[in-house]
Amino acid sequence: MFCLLSSSICHLFCCHSHNLNIFLLRIDYAGITAMIITSFFPPIYYIFQCTPRWYFIYLAAITSMGIFTIITLFTPSLSSPKYRGFRALLFASMGLFGIVPAIHALVVNWGNPQRNVTLLYELGVAVFYLVGTGFFVGRVPERLKPGWFDRVGHSHQIFHVFVLLGALSHYAAALLFLDWRDHVGC
Questions:
Q1: What is the C-alpha to C-alpha distance for residues 87 and 29, in angstroms, rounded to an integer?
Q2: Does 170 belong to an annotated binding site?
Q3: How confident is the model at residue 96 (pLDDT cuts 50, 70, 90)?
Q4: Which of 3, 19, 46, 102 has the smallest set of CB atoms within 10 Å of its CB?
């Protein structure tokens, strides 16, 4: 919810002044980072609940990546257009990091019949994040038709749609993880 709130505030007040615009964009991206970080918590907690060492390692890793990303966002020299691709790479890396615990979860839960369903949902999250990042970095479609997408259909808006789709896919997987942990236990 912080992600959506920070984005709404950013887009509502960013026209106030240049300095406020820059600050609110940083808050917007920090909200996205927070959503990515916290999206790892439910599946990793429930999947690795019986082996706390692993959920601590995975959650510490994604949290560290997120903190590094937020520091990067608030570092003025790294917030310049020159580092736009680098910042996008940080977001993509956080999304792709999910592959590591996903493979581990596959091995640990090989006999679980819902394994493939939850894996597809979580792969959906990664795909949605990557596709959204692709639109954002590629500045598609406004790069192809300048001026046509200034109000509706801008790459940043498309990016947010894909982030929301990723969140919904993740929510569906989290419900399955919760149900599975309630019935299986350690």
A1: 10
A2: no
A3: confident
A4: 19
Task: Answer yes or no: is 18 a known binding residue.
Answer: no
Mean pLDDT over residues 89-102, rounded? 88
Between CA 87 and CA 70 the distance in angstroms is 10
CB 109 within 8 A of CB 115: yes
> What stretches of the chain show up as alpha helix (H) in DSSP?
2-13, 18-47, 52-73, 84-97, 99-108, 115-138, 155-184
What is the domain count for the chain? 1
Q: Indicate the Cα dihedral angle 81, 84, 87, 89, nearest 10°.
A: -160
Distance CA 100, CA 52 (A): 16
Is 156 a known ligand-binding residue? Answer: yes
Residue 124 belongs to what domain range? 2-184
Compute the average pLDDT of residues 61-65: 97
Q: Dump pLDDT digits (tens) for 108-163.
A: 887 887 888 888 998 898 899 889 989 988 999 999 999 999 999 999 899 889 98
